[in-house]
Design brief:
Shape of chain A: elongated
Number of strands of chain A: 10
Radius of gyration of chain A: 19 Å
Largest sheet of chain A: 7 strands, mixed
Oligomer: homodimer
Number of helices of chain A: 8
């Protein structure tokens, strides 16, 4: 089946399945089922089976899924059976936390470049990296074939930053700044704004 | 229409509309349209009109929406026309960034309590707060009627933290730890794991 036929909402659940499987594997578990996975994730087992069926046959009726095999297949499908180089833009509080975060490496990502506009920060080390001038971003990311950027810049700078990323050939942006980015439709954008997530829940509170 | 009839995916878009309207208002704009809003957000104008129609009539055919009025109505619908007290658990890199984040206050939230397990951190100030012992969490949040928690604890601690939150009467959890939480169905949970968001995009990359 062509990948374009699979709904994005299905793709969005695959990383969640992979994360749950990795936790099970880390705990020494070898086999799981759509039922168990569903219980853990609050998703119906039918939904999980249907999602996975887009990509082939991963378990046998009655015997469940071999976790290592399913992990391997999901990593291949999501293309995280390799390491993606990520450029981080904005080395404020959030950016610094991201550089120090040790949860990227074993899940397919390495923050290998850090940029900022602040002349005081440019040239300074952060973790193993040296903060680079954002003006150099398009050339640097193009040269290193970086396809993924994480924007942790302030809201008022984020649109301009996104444009520099697109200029440099970036294809996917994870945006922490609390604004919607105007970028060409071929660019993938995911948003991590804690407030929109909180507001989505207050609707339901008394 | 009863609120329970409105799909959660619609509710999820309302904070995004509100955020875009607030940026327009901050730029001095007074009127917008579903067309303009849709262009900014990459959502069809028909979708926006349909989403808003669940809650009443907010604009006039041909004259668009008065931004201040629509903001006011969305704030009321999302219940962020008030200030919610938020408890933060885990004062590591992410937690510290959240305490310092100045984008909560004008959007309906105030991080008023901070908890950690680390005896070195407990009792220390962070911003205007004093870090409290997590063992006291259920009593403290119940006493102060805190309904919202932000979990920025490590993955291995997050489930236990979530249970303490639920014990204390918390109804909504924003979880930064990269695990799915097992909590009663009445508890609302939103997840902010940068890696799942990145993996959702790598699927589409070459």
């Amino acid at each position: 089946m062509a990948s374009t036929e699979i709904p994005d909402i299905v793709i969005g659940r695959l990383p969640v399945y992979l994360r749950a499987l990795s936790l099970m594997a880390a705990a020494g578990q070898e086999i799981t089922s759509s039922h168990e996975l569903g219980e853990k994730l609050g998703i119906s087992s039918a939904q999980i089976r249907k999602d996975l069926s887009h990509f082939g046959e991963f378990g046998k009726q009655g015997t469940g899924y071999r976790i290592s095999h399913l992990q391997e297949q999901l990593r291949r499908i999501l293309k995280v059976d390799r390491e993606w180089t990520v450029a981080l833009i904005g080395v404020g509080d959030v950016g610094q936390a991201l550089v120090r975060y040790n949860g990227f490496r074993d899940r397919g990502f390495r923050v290998a470049l850090a940029f900022d506009t602040d002349p005081v920060k440019v040239g300074q080390p952060i973790g193993d990296l040296t903060i680079q001038d954002i003006a150099t971003l398009p050339d640097v990311v193009r040269e290193q074939d970086v396809q993924i950027a994480v924007i942790a810049a302030p809201a008022k700078a984020a649109q301009e930053v996104a444009e520099l990323c697109v200029q440099g050939g970036v294809r996917a942006i994870l945006n922490y700044a609390p604004i919607n980015l105007a970028v060409p439709k071929v660019i993938h954008v995911q948003y991590l704004d804690p407030v929109t997530h909180l507001q989505r829940m207050t609707y339901y509170l008394a």
